[in-house]
């Protein structure tokens, strides 16, 4: 009797495929990579210290970890070096529990996180890496609860992405301000290794954010048909098309920028932590 076959003609059963390449490699490294980042982000949030460095100077300028930006509150009960003067609302309220130390990190992280989790690329990667639904093209999925029906109800939640985009742009504004602030120490202009790292952060995040499919739809004038006859007679539409093409350049590199920008956020936070804790020296024009 002929063996039962799955979609595409390969044998039925989990991970069965006719593919002979290392199809499992991508879901493996993407799954592990995101897991490591999530663990590190939670570590930063729960630790709540060494997120600010100004070399003892108290005037304008310094390095702020992106995990704590914008700095809404500073909690000196958790970290004696918390920069109260730099925070928007000063000292954290006394009713806030110290076991959940960083009030600003707790409030701010959900914004960029919801943007990432609903991103078209991230959805593809975590459906594959974590839910194996399916793990790769032309590879049989892990057993699913019920019949495969695409995103269905989940799609309603994922629609949040177009609104999370606005939040991500606001956060990007704060990170750009942090980059600007990193070129000052006690009001004196200068450059440190940290200034360059903090500046690259919003540049990479901006390249990822403005390569977003939802942004491309917005900037492209929400037109669905550039080849229609009306397009050829409408100057406004031609301008929209120019913007759409520019964003498309970033959009085509969206996956790469998603990973590079995320890794850079982690690296920036780690760099500020290492400098603030005294583990490494930040070489700069201000001296040490
Ligand atoms: S689709 Fe990836 S950020 Fe919008």
Radius of gyration: 23 Å
The largest sheet has its strands arranged as 1-2
Give the integer mean of the pLDDT values. 87
What structural class do helix, strand and pairing data support? mainly alpha
Roughly what fraction of the amino acids lie in strands? under 5%
Low-confidence parts:
none
Proportion in helices: 40-55%
Q: How many domains, in number, for the residues?
A: 1
Kindly state the number of beta strands.
4
Bound molecules: FE2/S2 (inorganic) cluster
The coarse silhouette is globular
Largest sheet: number of strands, sense, barrel closure:
2 strands, antiparallel
- Give the end-to-end Cα distance, rounded to a whole number of Å: 78 Å
Order of helices and strands: HEEHHHHHEEHHHH
Q: So how many helices?
A: 10
Kindly describe this structure.
The protein is an all-alpha fold. It has one domain. The chain has helices spanning 25-47, 103-108, 110-117, 120-129, 154-158, 161-181, 193-209, 213-219, 235-251, 254-276; strands at residues 52-53, 63-64, 184-185, 188-189. The strands form two sheets. A two-stranded antiparallel sheet has the order 1-2. A two-stranded antiparallel ribbon has the order 3-4. Strand 3 and strand 4 form a beta hairpin. Helix 7 (193-209) packs antiparallel against helix 10 (254-276). It is globular, with a radius of gyration of 23 Å. It starts with 24 loop residues before the first helix and ends in a 12-residue tail after the last helix. Bound molecules: FE2/S2 (inorganic) cluster.
């Amino acid at each position: 009797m002929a063996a039962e076959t799955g979609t595409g003609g390969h044998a039925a059963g989990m991970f069965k495929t006719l593919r002979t390449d290392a199809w499992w490699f991508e879901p493996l490294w993407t799954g592990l990579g995101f897991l490591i980042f999530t663990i590190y982000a939670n570590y930063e949030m729960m630790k709540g210290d060494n997120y600010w460095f100004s070399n003892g100077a108290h005037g304008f300028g310094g390095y702020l970890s992106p995990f704590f930006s914008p700095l809404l509150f500073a909690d000196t009960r958790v970290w004696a070096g918390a920069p109260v003067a730099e925070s928007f609302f000063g000292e954290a309220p006394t009713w806030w529990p110290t076991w959940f130390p960083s009030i600003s990190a707790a409030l701010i992280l959900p914004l960029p996180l919801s943007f990432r989790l609903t991103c078209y690329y991230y959805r593809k990667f975590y459906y594959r890496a974590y839910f194996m639904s399916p793990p790769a093209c032309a590879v049989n999925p892990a057993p699913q609860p019920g019949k495969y029906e695409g995103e269905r109800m989940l799609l309603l939640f994922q629609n949040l992405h177009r609104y999370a985009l606005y939040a991500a742009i606001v956060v990007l504004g704060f990170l750009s301000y942090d980059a600007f602030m990193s070129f000052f120490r006690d009001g004196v202009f200068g450059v440190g290794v940290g200034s360059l790292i903090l500046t690259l952060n919003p540049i990479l995040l901006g390249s990822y954010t403005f390569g977003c499919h939802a942004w491309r739809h917005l900037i492209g004038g929400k037109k669905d048909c550039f080849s229609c006859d009306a397009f050829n007679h409408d100057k406004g539409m031609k301008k929209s098309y120019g913007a759409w093409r520019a964003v498309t350049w970033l959009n085509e590199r969206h996956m790469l920028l998603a990973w590079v920008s995320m890794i850079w956020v982690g690296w920036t936070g780690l760099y500020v932590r290492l400098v603030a804790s005294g583990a490494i020296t930040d070489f700069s024009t201000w001296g040490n």
